[in-house]
């Protein structure tokens, strides 16, 4: 439900927000951001009419209108019922949903200094608005009355779960507080909203402000595709004739993998991993300390010992202890593998007479040499078979085989887009022709777009206003090459493309009736997307879509086998850098007193205590850990990727064991029915057991990563 706006607002990628309604802003009655969506496919966002001047007045109007709707529900003289309270709230807020769609585009895809200035102004007002809903005593009284009577109301299971989720959304966000405690809770929420905005903007400022420029004599070892992309990036920044290594993972990672220039590798490495930690106006350390203290104080008002206990209570892990146990069960094997990987890399460096000790900026470079030496697997050779347009076709093929979906490009003039890079596809049922929704694809990096890859919806499937179809979007940061040239991506990026498409399929497959049930449990929702990565190396995808950019021939069997054999290669690095971030996240959020924490010192001391290898660092160092500190989506919850990966490995074995393998119709049908279509209408534990017939086991995860399986598994 939209009542869970505190969670929604905190989880938005707050790297930008809204602009002041200046003299040229549209009057609210004519504001295009407020208007109902029109056009084909059940109506689509008016991305072609977006004007930053309209955003602040639109949000102000939408917040006021939604609060009026909420007040009308709260003051209803009729006794509270499921329909006049819970369903009424599910129906409210359509206007602000539309405005938040545009807000999210500016926030994530089209940020600018002007937008970030507005965001800072709007953040406390948005927090106050969400707090006014969750602390509406009359509304909570009605919700509580329905919740207390839920066993007697003859509700369907999904309606029972809806009531519980709505009630928890109030109770876990301060609705039961009184007097000074309630006022303090609201004040904390407002301040946190400001801090999250500032944190995200600081990281974005460092990503935009720190670019490493190269001359032609500093390109040794770099693939032609990277050189072309770096030249285009420099040209875009007014530095024609030079080559730009931008301060994003998609640029940093290949540079560190291939560049022969060790000093430059160190420069690029430090620039990337020091984001938010440069002792300047964009330094995030003081913000982190304040965020931690405020989070701890806020959950203390609710009676919790620490923030992690509050955060994990309604997730699959339930407690921070269970999450920590999982991380620590994998940690020793991961660290031991790092030691082996470093020894292999050091041997290569010694053999080449490099006269160095492996440092973090050497890890990717020498790992690539070991990969080529041990598996004769050249990442750049693999890349020649990974064309973005062909991989997009592969996504559609897999969705067709598993879900029965057909993807058809929509003519450019039919649906507005917010940037020329965006393409749109109609999704239909390939047997019946029924319209399922639209899929937007925004694949390329650009200034003002947040780094990484993500999926989102502009409209989710519901029936409370009549059937509404899905508008889903995938967003990436691939580096666009020279005009007309195919875009080649790395194997890791191809897996990420499949991963994020898994989220989109989760959106598109929804068959739930109520908006709230389109939400998810964070340590579960990554499972569906991680599982979809397994289809990248299936035979039909390899034979049809992984084709050489020059010859059009499919990836040869020997190269496929090398990739399969190398699947566990460098798992020490990948697992340890991830686990380190997860462990620091949990430990920060289980501190007895975080009020005077020094984030840099805490990070160093925690990693030393854990025995973190010196040759690598956390995947996301604390000062730029946007998952955790630019909102609350993954706060105390970064462990969730591993929790979900346990489910992923276990579910993948269900397909591997089936007669039809990864395209087995029976297993695919159970997958869609129990793990995708129900979204959050069914408890995740129950949903997984319905699919697998039992709980998940950790042993498949350890096997997948090439780690020893713990005794008893």
From TrEMBL:
Q: Entry's Gene3D superfamilies?
A: Collagenase (Catalytic Domain), Endopeptidase. Chain P, domain 1, Neurolysin, domain 3
* Stretches assigned to the Peptidase M3A/M3B catalytic domain: 255-704
The main enzyme category here is: hydrolase
Q: Which N-terminal residues, if any, form the signal peptide? A: 1-18
Enumerate the UniProt keywords alphabetically.
Answer: Hydrolase, Metal-binding, Metalloprotease, Protease, Signal, Zinc
UniProt cofactor note = Binds 1 zinc ion.
Which E.C. number(s) belong to this protein?
3.4.24.-
Q: Name one GO molecular function term.
A: hydrolase activity
Q: Which cofactor does it need?
A: Zn(2+)
Q: Which family does it belong to?
A: Belongs to the peptidase M3 family.
- Protein's name in the database: M3 family metallopeptidase
């Amino acid at each position: 439900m939209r009542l869970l706006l505190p969670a929604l607002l905190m989880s938005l990628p707050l790297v930008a927000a809204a602009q002041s309604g200046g003299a040229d802003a549209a009057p609210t009655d004519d504001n295009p951001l407020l208007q109902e969506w029109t056009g084909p496919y059940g109506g689509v966002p008016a991305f072609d009419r977006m004007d930053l001047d309209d955003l602040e007045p639109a949000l102000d109007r939408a917040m006021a209108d939604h609060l009026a709707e909420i007040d009308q529900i709260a003051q209803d003289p009729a006794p509270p019922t499921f329909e006049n309270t819970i369903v009424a709230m599910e129906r409210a807020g359509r206007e602000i949903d539309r405005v938040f769609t545009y807000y999210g585009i500016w926030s994530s895809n089209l940020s600018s200094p002007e937008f970030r200035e507005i965001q800072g102004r709007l953040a406390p007002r948005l927090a106050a608005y969400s707090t006014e809903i969750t602390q509406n005593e009359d509304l909570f009284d009605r919700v509580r009355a329905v919740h207390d009577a839920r066993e007697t109301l003859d509700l369907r299971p999904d309606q029972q779960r809806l009531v519980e989720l709505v009630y928890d959304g109030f109770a876990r966000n301060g609705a039961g507080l009184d007097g000074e405690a309630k006022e303090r809770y609201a004040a904390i929420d407002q301040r946190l909203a400001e801090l999250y905005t500032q944190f995200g903007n600081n990281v974005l400022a460092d990503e935009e402000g720190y670019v490493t420029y190269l001359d032609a004599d500093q390109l040794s070892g770099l693939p032609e595709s990277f050189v072309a992309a770096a030249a285009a990036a420099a040209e875009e920044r007014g530095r024609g004739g030079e080559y730009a290594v931008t301060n994003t993972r998609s640029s940093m990672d290949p540079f560190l993998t291939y560049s022969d220039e060790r000093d430059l590798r160190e420069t690029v490495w430090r620039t990337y991993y020091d984001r938010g930690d440069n002792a300047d106006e964009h330094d995030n350390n003081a913000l982190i300390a304040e965020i931690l203290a405020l989070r701890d104080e806020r959950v203390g008002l609710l009676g919790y010992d620490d923030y992690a206990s509050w955060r994990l209570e309604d997730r699959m892990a339930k407690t921070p202890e269970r999450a920590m146990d999982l991380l620590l069960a994998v940690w020793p094997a991961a660290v031991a593998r790092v030691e082996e990987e470093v020894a292999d890399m050091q041997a290569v460096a010694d053999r080449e007479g490099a006269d160095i000790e492996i440092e973090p900026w050497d890890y990717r470079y020498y790992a690539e040499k070991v990969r080529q030496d041990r598996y004769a697997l050249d990442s750049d050779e693999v890349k020649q078979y990974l064309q973005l347009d062909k991989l997009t076709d592969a996504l559609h093929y897999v969705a067709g085989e598993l879900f029965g979906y057909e993807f058809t490009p929509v003519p450019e003039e039919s649906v507005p887009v917010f940037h020329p890079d965006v393409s749109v596809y109609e999704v239909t049922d390939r047997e019946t022709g029924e319209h399922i929704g639209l899929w937007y694809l925004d694949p390329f990096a650009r200034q003002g777009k947040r780094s990484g890859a993500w999926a989102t919806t502009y409209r989710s499937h519901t029936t409370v206003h009549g059937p509404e179809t899905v508008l889903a979007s995938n967003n990436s940061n691939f580096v666009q090459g020279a005009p007309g040239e195919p875009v080649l991506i790395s194997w890791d990026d191809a897996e990420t493309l499949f991963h994020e498409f898994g989220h989109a399929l989760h959106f598109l497959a929804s068959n739930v009736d109520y908006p709230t049930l389109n939400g998810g449990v964070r340590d579960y929702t990554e499972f569906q997307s991680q599982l979809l990565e397994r289809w990248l190396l299936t035979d039909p995808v390899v034979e049809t879509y992984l084709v050489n950019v020059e010859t059009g021939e499919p990836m040869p069997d020997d190269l496929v086998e090398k990739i399969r054999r190398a699947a566990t290669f460098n798992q020490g690095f990948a697992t340890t850098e991830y686990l380190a971030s997860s462990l620091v996240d949990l430990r920060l959020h289980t501190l007895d007193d975080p009020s005077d924490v020094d984030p840099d010192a805490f990070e160093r001391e925690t990693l030393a205590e854990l025995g973190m290898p010196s040759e690598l660092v956390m995947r996301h160092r604390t000062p730029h850990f946007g998952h955790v500190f630019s909102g609350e989506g993954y706060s105390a919850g970064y462990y969730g990727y591993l929790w979900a990966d346990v489910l992923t490995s276990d579910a993948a074995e269900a397909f591997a064991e089936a007669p039809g393998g990864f395209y087995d119709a029976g297993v695919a049908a159970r997958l869609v029915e129990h793990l995708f279509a129900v979204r959050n209408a069914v408890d995740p534990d129950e949903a997984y057991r319905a699919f697998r017939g039992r709980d998940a086991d950790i042993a498949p995860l350890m096997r997948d990563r090439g780690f020893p399986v713990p005794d008893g598994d």
